[in-house]
Amino acid sequence: MNNMHRGFSPVPARSAGFTLLEVLVALVIVGTALGASLRAVGSLTQNSNDLRASMMATWSAENRLTEIRLARSYPPLGKTSFECPQAEMQLVCEQEVLTTPNVNFRRVEVSVFDVRAPNRRIIKLNQLVSV
């Protein structure tokens, strides 16, 4: 009983600060948020790369269709393939000239592929060419 009178209490006082469990929960929350942020940044980067590839492929296809218009000649029927790079992108264009119900017109289709993924078409543009 003498000890009780000297300022000792039977319940220990709680020290200031965080428990290990609280710190671990906070770390899990922060880690999850950082993981989601990195995933979002990666997705934005991929979307930016895809948009850039689409833009470059469109330029290549439009260049080819413009060449055909400016040549003012009837393109021969059939399919041809040729390189059509833009900036540092190595692209391959595939041109197919098809007949139409009207003999005065031919349909020209230009598909653009990336050399690194030749089975994945980036873009396909069509144009009618007259005599």
From TrEMBL:
Q: Which superkingdom is the protein from? A: Bacteria
Check the record and name the SUPFAM superfamilies matching this protein.
Pili subunits
Q: Write down the membrane topology.
A: Single-pass membrane protein
Q: Does the keyword Zinc apply?
A: no
- Compartments in which it is found: Cell inner membrane
Where it mainly occurs, coarsely classed, is membrane
PTM (free text)? Cleaved by prepilin peptidase.
Gene3D superfamilies the record matches: GSPII I/J protein-like
Keywords, comma-separated and alphabetical: Cell inner membrane, Cell membrane, Membrane, Methylation, Transmembrane, Transmembrane helix
Transmembrane helix among keywords: yes
Q: What region holds the Type II secretion system protein GspI C-terminal domain?
A: 51-129
Assembly information from the UniProt record: Type II secretion is composed of four main components: the outer membrane complex, the inner membrane complex, the cytoplasmic secretion ATPase and the periplasm-spanning pseudopilus.
Its function, per the record, reads: Component of the type II secretion system required for the energy-dependent secretion of extracellular factors such as proteases and toxins from the periplasm.
Concerning its family, UniProt says: Belongs to the GSP I family.
What protein name is recorded for this chain?
Type II secretion system protein I
Taxonomic classification? Bacteria, Pseudomonadati, Pseudomonadota, Betaproteobacteria, Burkholderiales
